[in-house]
Amino acid sequence: MKYFSRFTVLAITSCLAIASCTPAERSYDHSSTEASDSVIDAETRAKVNTAEIDMDGREKAFILSTYSHGLYMSDLAAITAQSKNEKLRTFGDQLGSSYQTTVSDVEKMAKTEGLLLQRQLSSAQQKELSALKELSSPTLDQQVLQKVNQMLATFTTVFKEGSYLKNTALKDFADAHLPEVQKQQAAAAKLITASTDSGTQSTRPGEVSTGN
Length: 212
Fold this sequence. Notes:
The chain is about 60% helix and about 5% strand. The chain has helices at about 1-10, 40-45, 55-80, 85-115, 125-135, 140-160, 170-200, and strands at about 20, 115. By secondary structure, it is mostly helical. Helix 3 packs antiparallel against helix 4 and helix 3 (about 55-80) packs antiparallel against helix 6 (about 140-160). Mean pLDDT is about 75; it is low at about 1-5, about 10-50 and about 200-205.
């Protein structure tokens, strides 16, 4: 239960719809653009209809966590285009490409396993991203990098736990992506140091200005 609950803590932050579908319904929806305001209890979601597909709760939680965080990271990376820092913009482009691929790969694995995923961010996530878009360099750089660093730490935990899954495809996915995330963490750390040394902060570290 301790192992399972660690996935649950990470996945519970997601506000995505995830459900099992019958063989005749093995498709997933890319069209939904409305954010779901409900908080998903990953453990409950993972237990629902488990008997209908060959996947246990931890594996469902892994998919949910990776997918939801991948969606958020893709949108977060896009905000770096507003930065005046060329190195950050380049890093953001790399992150965006990487996590768009991650999202696409997870969708394919989920479809294979008979899971239905919808591309939705929670209202809280959307609000946070909107607040970041209102900032400008150097505060934008510092705030985005702090958020990126937090997300990379989350991915590190998810993929380390994923390496113990019984599902070979998910285990291999986690093992393959962990080294990439660790490289991204190192790159983010360098940018954070440079941003802190050269810029001034109009908000405290870790905070996002919401305006008003």
